[in-house]
Amino acid sequence: MNELDIYAKQGFGNSSGFGARPALLIVDFVIGFTDPEHFGGGNILSAVANTKTLLAAARAHSLPIAYTRIVYADHQADKGIFCLKAKGLEKFTEHAPLGQIVTELAPEPRELIVRKSQPSAFFGTSLAAWLISKAVDTVIVTGCTTSGCVRASVVDSMSHNFRTIVARDGVGDRALGPHQANLFDIEQKYADLWTCAEIATHLQALNQARES
Amino acid sequence: MNELDIYAKQGFGNSSGFGARPALLIVDFVIGFTDPEHFGGGNILSAVANTKTLLAAARAHSLPIAYTRIVYADHQADKGIFCLKAKGLEKFTEHAPLGQIVTELAPEPRELIVRKSQPSAFFGTSLAAWLISKAVDTVIVTGCTTSGCVRASVVDSMSHNFRTIVARDGVGDRALGPHQANLFDIEQKYADLWTCAEIATHLQALNQARES
Amino acid sequence: MNELDIYAKQGFGNSSGFGARPALLIVDFVIGFTDPEHFGGGNILSAVANTKTLLAAARAHSLPIAYTRIVYADHQADKGIFCLKAKGLEKFTEHAPLGQIVTELAPEPRELIVRKSQPSAFFGTSLAAWLISKAVDTVIVTGCTTSGCVRASVVDSMSHNFRTIVARDGVGDRALGPHQANLFDIEQKYADLWTCAEIATHLQALNQARES
Amino acid sequence: MNELDIYAKQGFGNSSGFGARPALLIVDFVIGFTDPEHFGGGNILSAVANTKTLLAAARAHSLPIAYTRIVYADHQADKGIFCLKAKGLEKFTEHAPLGQIVTELAPEPRELIVRKSQPSAFFGTSLAAWLISKAVDTVIVTGCTTSGCVRASVVDSMSHNFRTIVARDGVGDRALGPHQANLFDIEQKYADLWTCAEIATHLQALNQARES
Fold it and tell me: Which residue of B has its CA nearest to A81?
């Protein structure tokens, strides 16, 4: 019995659905995570390009939009275990060029920037409270890396009981094996996978349903 | 360039080390997660057997010991998104036989049982506060599944800045592909991998250092 | 300048309002917190009586309803700092008569019981995630004590960005000075104060607005 | 029976003690919370002066030191319920003069600055994880206001199972009634009250014990 069969037999892999009040969460699309000389590479640049299209759709439909950045204190006051495992992470300080959101996805005023120092966008941040303030029931996730901060954010989004949609072509990773393996886990247990184009079409439909 | 090379080049895969005050966390070794007719299978039973030996060592050295169980309310008051993705999870109620810790690893009085309803042992629980009360600096993790509740618990343990040690032969999964893929991610980014025997030997050494 | 004037001059004491999707949270109305021989006394019994009426209204309008209990492990595995400050708290174990919800407010199936070991109903629990799953935007709080677990729960409810309504005659305390002092702080900074009767009338109005 | 008698009879008001590895937490001593034209007044300036002495002692003994600031996004992306209750809070943006830490207590490099948008220093921040990384077992709290962000931070510190010491002359409030009422609640249930001078003397003794 192959893996998909085992998961299907045990009851995994069902859809948790797309709710009525979505938000868009863009994880760690910063310069240092798109550049292969730092933590980037693989299919990350194409995930940025796909996210750019989705971001335009999200803005057109007035979705709440949040971006995460990894930000450590200038003098390493908050350097922790994560910086031991991944050397160089502590260089993502407030003003370091590496830590700035890529220009293709530059945030607009009133969009939220979440500073975080751990993999999950929810850990040690007020993201969950902000989503509550916007009455969000569904979190659409793009970003990088699939096997790192995206995966951790998706698990926490689901754990908070937000329906979670991962843009399968809007998330990327420096290496394709972990990218695929994590999409498998995510789809089986935590979130539904859609393409950016499918999500944009659905946002349009949601909007029309609301207006009629 | 293969995956290991990419990760090595970018600075991942370093050791975060083993601290001075470890605790043992045993994730979801309950009947329904060891039985292949429910959510078990794969190498889970051998992980239970290895954990049994490690548990004896942890008790011999008076480590704080915690076990997690998935527990949902009897009338599904708290059935959430996770139960949509994984059908049947809501059957793990307080008194359901499926949800009881396996007899090989029966908790003793004064060991902590953590009831949880999400993947991570830390989410919506007082595990972190309990570890603080015990002055723990290192969390040793065994349990199942590697690609699910173990992975989520390890990410949160590291995010809380506990040095985290995953017993590579004390964690198991229903399918080996996700098991291996998640051990890769864990070792590269979140925790160090040791065997149960290596951990037991190290506990002995820690104890001798303390006594001398 | 008296206290109210100082607070008014500095911009405190405004209303945060009553939203569209309320839930009812009943904090620690258990036998040991109503009995003056244990942790009860003062105006707690009258707060229970007023809550009973409000609970009937909440059920009539199908609000999500949650109750908290303080529950420590049978063998004190999780006895922490709170039990040092307040001796005897650790006696509130799962099956101790002291720790059972008072019969006047007996929960029905499908209503949520939240086990907690700290003052706030949100700390180390999945209450926030449950409220998200019910699309709640407003938390109505009754319970005891005003100066303890109610206050802590209200601060956390507001911090999660739930509009918070405290039933001023549905919360009680063993001593009236702290009760009044905490209602002052709550009204100035965290929540709006309504009577149980005003809340019940408003629920009726919300329901009619929804139906028409 | 007066209030103190009721609390004493029921088992409250015990000491939770001073541990071996303290940290200093300075809550919201920023310009806008010391100036009576904004949110300051009362005994806040004298609490700043006392904290200055304690801070010197904490630095002399190499304690981990953290400061909180309230920081909202520049374009009010994260304005929530708290800003409805307390008008003007949203003006505490990253670069607003109001939101800067007072010059008497200017942080040094390697001391932690915690940005928060809610009353508690722990809510939506990585303070707890940072304290874990420093192996802290005791949190010494100064700051303002006693009835607001200090109280909320103290409750959360205790809930995380940190022994908590409130510097009774290092915390201040715009009005003395709420200041006193909250010190009462804090001492009865959550933390021990010491003067700044008593704390400094104890730090000296801890240091000597460690050296001998």
Answer: B161
